[in-house]
Specification:
By secondary structure, this protein is an alpha/beta fold. About 45% of the residues lie in helices and about 15% in strands. The protein is built from 18 helices and 14 strands. The strands form 2 sheets. The protein has an 8-stranded mixed beta sheet with strand order 3-2-1-4-5-6-7-8, with helices on both faces. A 6-stranded parallel beta sheet has the order 11-10-9-12-13-14. Strand 5, helix 6 and strand 6 form a beta-alpha-beta unit. Helix 11 packs across helix 12. The radius of gyration is 24 Å and the shape is elongated. The C terminus is likely disordered.
Length: about 450
């Protein structure tokens, strides 16, 4: 196949930078575009603006071998490449719907650049956008500002990303599938050819309409979020039944090939950049279409209640929380990232502060991000042991590997009142419950009591 594809990526967030670095590592010539001078300078110097395992070493490598170039603005990126991926953010509006401000602005800038370009160019929307956005929003803006026609002078496709924060480089190299939404056949053919070059036939490629591809992303995240909320609801039932553990329930369920074990881990709730934003957007979109998406709405409600449930477990053990020191282990919404967007930790901390508790927190990489949000309302520890010192209760909120190595003696030796609430089920209840007051999401009482 003809390797004619010089690639540009617009946006240097999690998706954009990861995608640009991966393409460059596969020996494509890549131009990454940002409108933020400071962010562009960081990346040019080999510094990722966020924490993502394996990303920064790979970034330095592709910069050194000159496969990746970083520019400010869109024109240079478009004029010197064949394909442009749009990866700008689509945050939530107050009503939950997606804010397309950045997508619209980017389409306008790309359109202006296309006006100066003589050759065919393919634009691929990778940002998560509501169905109809690529055709009814992006396409008209591109045509207006380029004075060219989609399908004749330039191509248009939509290919949603399915990256997990903390595993982006692995996911880019080993996707479960590639979804291609196409405005016309030529656009789809070019994008399929690129993916065939990348994955050499080992990844299923599914081609469909633009709107179907857009909805596929929302549907996938909504289903996974619902699956987590389902097992969290089961966990709350398990806690009310003597001798029952949601971990065992999930294991039994996961053996059914129709269900599978993934996303059946009960915990303090989901967060991050995708599940909260995408579920809210899907509910808001459905409402505008005249349909109330009750199932997804309930998944969101259950997730919100998980943070409150963590605090309730502490109150059951300590009574009034006023003046009590609560140690929070983990601030990022998941391990291997410094992302705190919609993190369970922030919800839990706000509830604890409202009860008059004193909060000390530790996270391997996310402390600075939390400081920017909470300031000096809580104290920040430099390590796990400092965080636990003289605490009345410890809550494990993020399952970082270094927390998994802790032993009961670490808690009993440092805490004033050793109460441990395992919000991510990383400790063996049989061991820990014998050494200290131990509560965990989805763990019923071990004593013999009548139902």
């Amino acid at each position: 196949m003809k390797r004619l594809k010089r690639i540009s990526v617009v946006g240097l967030g999690f998706v954009g930078l990861s995608t640009a670095v991966y393409f460059a590592a596969q020996r494509y010539n890549v131009i990454a575009s940002s409108n933020q001078q400071r962010k562009a300078e960081l990346v040019r110097n080999g510094v990722a603006p966020f924490f993502e395992p394996e990303l920064e070493p790979m970034l330095k490598k592709v910069l050194k071998n000159r496969k990746l170039r970083v520019v400010v603005g869109r024109e240079t990126a478009v004029l010197n490449t064949d394909i442009t991926f749009i990866t700008v953010g689509t945050p939530s509006l107050p009503d939950g719907s997606a804010d397309l401000t950045f997508v619209k602005a980017t389409a306008k800038e790309i359109g202006a650049a296309l006006k100066r370009k003589q050759s065919y160019h393919l634009i691929v929307v990778k940002s998560t956008v509501p169905p109809g956005t690529s055709e009814n929003v992006v396409k008209p803006i591109l045509e207006e500002h380029s004075e060219k026609n989609a399908g004749e002078d330039f191509g248009l496709a939509m290919s949603p990303e399915f990256l997990r924060e903390g595993s982006s480089m692995y996911d880019l190299a080993n996707p479960d599938r590639v979804v291609i939404g196409e405005f016309d056949e030529r656009s789809g053919d070019i994008l399929e050819e690129l993916n065939e070059e990348l994955y050499k036939g080992r990844v299923a490629i599914s081609r469909m309409s633009l709107a179907s591809a857009e909805l596929a992303k929302y549907a996938s995240n909504a289903f996974l979020a619902t699956k987590v909320s389902f097992i969290n609801q089961m966990a709350n039932i398990c806690e009310r039944i003597s001798g029952v553990d949601v971990v065992e329930i999930a294991r039994a369920m996961g053996l059914d090939h129709r269900i599978g074990p993934e996303f059946l881990r009960a915990g303090a709730g989901w967060g991050g950049s995708c599940f909260p934003k995408d579920t809210k957007a899907l509910v808001a979109m459905s409402r505008k279409l005249g349909y109330e998406s009750k199932l997804i709405g309930e998944a969101i409600s259950i997730n919100v209640m998980q943070a409150k449930h963590m605090v309730e477990l502490a109150e059951e053990e300590l009574g009034n929380l006023e003046g009590k020191k609560i140690a929070i282990l983990g601030l990022s919404f998941k391990p291997n990232t410094d992302d705190i967007r919609e993190a369970a930790s922030l919800k839990i901390i706000e509830l604890l502060l409202a009860e008059g508790a004193e909060v000390a927190a530790f996270d391997p990489v996310a402390v600075d991000n939390v400081k920017a949000v909470l300031g000096d309302r809580i104290s920040y520890s430099s390590n796990v042991y400092e965080c636990l010192e003289n605490a009345d209760c410890c809550m494990v909120v993020t399952e970082w590997n270094e927390f998994k190595k802790l032993q009961p003696s670490d808690f009993t030796g440092l805490m004033h009142n050793p109460v441990l609430i395992d919000g991510r089920r990383i400790y063996d209840p049989m061991i820990f419950s014998k050494k200290l007051k131990f509560r965990a999401i989805g763990l019923g009482e071990t004593s013999e009591e009548k139902l």
